[in-house]
Design a protein that fits this description.
By secondary structure, this protein is of the alpha+beta class. The protein is built from 4 helices and 4 strands, in the order βαβαββαα. It has helices at about 15-30, 45-50, 70-80, 80-85; strands at about 10, 35, 60, 65-70. Helix 1 (about 15-30) runs parallel beside helix 3 (about 70-80). It is globular.
């Protein structure tokens, strides 16, 4: 993990185009992320979905902050706000 980058977690499923687009965007930007299988009952995805009233994947977190899905991540990137949210 880049020590100057907040941790990024993506809760995704294997067959999800928006999940793939979110991961591709982060990779293109050189940002590291942890991919978590939202379909695995061992993960806390169901509780997080309920807590954030978000019932689709991807679910993206930067540090402890819930970002949303791909559209919200891409909007942050397009507005130039993503780097400020990610960098320590």
């Amino acid at each position: 993990m880049n020590p100057k980058q907040k941790p990024i977690r993506i809760y995704s499923t294997a067959i999800c185009a928006y999940c793939d687009m979110a991961k591709a965007l982060l990779s293109r930007l050189g940002l590291e992320y942890q991919n978590i299988d939202a379909a695995d009952p061992q993960n806390d995805a169901a509780e997080l979905m309920k807590a954030h009233s978000w019932f689709t994947v991807p679910m993206i977190f930067i540090g402890d902050d819930f970002v949303g899905g791909f559209d919200e991540l891409n909007a942050l990137h397009q507005s130039g706000e993503l780097s400020g949210r990610v960098n320590l």
